[in-house]
Design goal:
By secondary structure, this protein is mostly beta strands. It has one domain: Outer membrane protein transport protein (OMPP1/FadL/TodX) (Porin), CATH 2.40.160. The protein has 3 helices and 21 strands. The strands form 3 sheets. A 14-stranded antiparallel barrel has the order 2-3-4-5-6-7-8-11-12-15-16-19-20-21. The protein has a two-stranded antiparallel ribbon with strand order 13-14. The radius of gyration is 25 Å and the shape is elongated. Keywords: Signal. This is Outer membrane protein beta-barrel domain-containing protein. It comes from Prevotella histicola F0411.
């Protein structure tokens, strides 16, 4: 129990790391921000493939039914971080940005026979961007009519995080179900400034802020059917409850006189402005003799009917209200696999895991009435066993991931990410016989 408390305290200290944004993407200005993966280290090597996996020595947060498979003698503690480089391309103008981020901290252990418990800290979304553009107001400037320029500056920060507690139960062989209950919290800050080189024109700023504190519920089930003595299929199902987040959002419209510096602020407020989508996942995993595991996952997030705050109109007709047309339903398809000769072998390379995965994600944002970026991604990963006199059950998970986001007429993103996760697997609950 003392070690569990120590692990929880470590997770608490690590919350500071989640305060930093894990993105530089301009697309994080929309919705709840850039949606973060819920995958842990071994899933990331397969590009997030998860729904059908139930590992005895890894924590699969994406399907809580898998907790029931955790080794009865182990306490598993898994923490991961990422390093990423992103290239942004807009009309041939390219910019690079880099980030380092604590990705997740999760733990799991067997509470009772056929019942596994897990707790953890993960991101849900990230907001982080800062860019601007400058244009001429006069199409044809002349000495008698000098050019006036206007600049638009956009920036934002924040994101949502979740601390979760979950359990999975296998009531009879081959079938298990589970649930995660999470506390979701965070702030979303977005700032827009319109300024002119002409000192007679006021500077207009729009500052959007929101603080979110609410719950999140996820459910999962798995059924495994043996085909032959060496082959089995596992069907995984997940569902995340969509609901209102009972959070207010505020918009401060600030007009500043460029000559005197005097500002006039108009404040707008919307109650119960944000909502989580209903999310459904289904996956199928084929396991050959515990050596080769190949699977496919499909996820649907029901964003299409969700409303979003919008400031519209000018002067006395300005309104700040919820509007539709900002989102589409989000579809994600993932194919991947894991190969390991066998954990019962003593050879180092025999116990290595080799992983790969690819994904396609449909556009779910609507930007100026057009579809936002679609996403293509691929990953390669390895699970490196840690073998020494003290511990031979822990695993170092390393993966490399490529993510491309693009849409016609919009910024293209190419991101290269290195994920590093360390899974500590300790025999805490074994009873040793003393001669």
């Amino acid at each position: 129990m003392k070690k569990i408390i120590v692990s929880a305290l470590f997770a608490g200290f690590a919350m500071q790391g989640f305060a930093q944004s894990g993105t530089n993407s301009p697309y994080s200005q929309y919705g709840l921000g850039t949606l973060a993966t819920q995958a842990t280290g071994f899933n990331r090597g397969m590009n997030g493939l998860a729904y059908g996996f139930h590992e005895h020595n890894q924590v699969n947060h994406m399907n809580p039914a898998s907790y029931s498979a955790v080794d009865s003698l182990s306490f598993i503690f898994d923490a991961g971080l990422s390093l990423q480089l992103t290239n942004f391309d807009e009309g041939g103008h390219k910019v690079n940005a880099h980030n380092a981020d604590i990705e997740y901290i999760v733990a799991s252990f067997r509470a009772f026979k056929h019942v596994g418990v897990s707790f953890g800290l993960l991101p849900y979304s990230n907001v982080g961007y800062n860019f601007s553009n400058t244009r001429n107001v006069n199409a044809f400037p002349s000495p008698s009519s000098p050019s006036t320029t206007y600049s638009n500056t956009y920036s934002g920060d924040g994101g949502l995080h979740q601390v979760s507690l979950g359990a999975g139960w296998e009531p009879f062989k081959g079938f298990s179900f589970g649930a995660n209950i999470s506390y979701l919290w965070g702030t979303l800050n977005r700032y827009t400034t319109n300024s002119y080189s002409d000192s007679y024109v006021n500077t207009i700023s729009r500052n959007y802020t929101a603080e979110i504190k609410n719950y999140k519920l996820d459910f999962g089930a798995q059924y495994t059917h043996a085909i032959t003595k060496k082959d089995e299929l596992t069907l995984g199902l997940t569902y995340s409850l969509g609901h209102k987040l009972n959070s207010n959002t505020e918009c401060n419209l600030i007009s500043t006189n460029s000559q005197t510096g005097v500002s006039d602020t108009t404040r707008y407020m919307i109650s119960n402005a944000f909502e989580l989508p209903h999310t459904i996942g289904i996956g199928l995993m084929w396991n050959h003799n515990n050596h080769l595991k190949i699977g496919v996952d499909y996820q649907l997030q029901k964003w299409a009917k969700i409303l979003y705050p919008r400031l519209s109109g000018t002067g006395s007709t300005t309104t700040f209200a919820l509007a539709d047309g900002f989102f589409k339903d989000r579809h994600r398809l993932t194919l991947g696999g894991d190969y390991c000769r066998g954990e019962r072998y003593r050879g180092f390379f025999d116990r290595m895991h080799y992983r790969a995965g690819v994904s396609y994600t449909s556009p779910y944002l609507k930007i100026n009435g057009a579809d936002g970026p679609r996403e293509l991604s691929a990953s390669l990963g390895v699970g490196i066993p840690i073998i020494n006199g003290y511990n031979n059950r822990s695993i170092l998970n390393i993966s490399a991931e490529w993510v491309n986001q693009s849409a016609t007429g919009l910024i293209k993103e190419n991101m290269f990410r290195i994920n590093v996760g360390l899974t500590f697997n300790e025999r805490w609950f074994a009873k040793f016989k003393v001669e």
